[in-house]
Amino acid sequence: MSAAQGGIAISTIDEATLLAYLRTRYRVLCDPPITLRIGERSAALAALLHARGADCAAFLTAWNPRGDLFMAPANADAQRALRAELAAGGHAVVAGIGEDPDGHWPGEDSVLVPGLGYAEAVAVAEAFGQNALVWAGADARPQLVLLR
Known about the structure:
disordered N terminus, 30% helix, single chain, two-stranded antiparallel sheet, 26% strand, alpha+beta
């Protein structure tokens, strides 16, 4: 979790990892696919939100908690648990994948959850041990939310 000191949020996530998160291609696997970039408004995301009657969305994964590389079976089990938790909460998801543009880190199965509010998105990501999540409000401008 990040701490505040003198009004500035401090993260325990190392700089290389932060830069990797900022460079990641957050792909929503709808038709046609949407690639989200941190800080850049997405007209395609805005259209998807409008079509779903939502004013926000979260892009989440359960893969590789705390940035530690896990084996595929453990990641698949965690992702199934994430999807089950979201479904139990009445949330529809769109499949996604977080991709390293340089291919140094394997793609992570993810989901876009239209209508998932900020506080609930943070709670879900924290429950699955994530360092960060991507969240966009009504402006359809994805933001990186650091949790550590």
